[in-house]
Model the fold of this input.
Amino acid sequence: MRVSRFIAVILTIVQTHFGFVLVILVAYASYEWMTFRMSLSSRTSGRRRTPFMEQRKAELRAEGKDDTIQYQPVPYSQISPNLRRPSSSPKTTTSTSTTASMSPR
Done:
């Protein structure tokens, strides 16, 4: 009986404030869609250059050395705990990350 009362209260709120509830639902759906798209694009774009990488490339070019960026996948367990992202799941040790190194040739 409590559940049916709860549902009746929810339906009353939705009926009386339909426009407001609709705006909230559309805003939430839009937010989720935008953040989902951003997470997909960050996974597919992957190897982005940071300002530090560009600075190091400029330094190598100034020294007359090769500034090619070499990407090398590294197991998550080999990444320093100071650089890892906090995780709520202990099973993240199987994932891999990618580090970039610029080695002069």
Remarks:
- The longest strand covers residues 70-75.
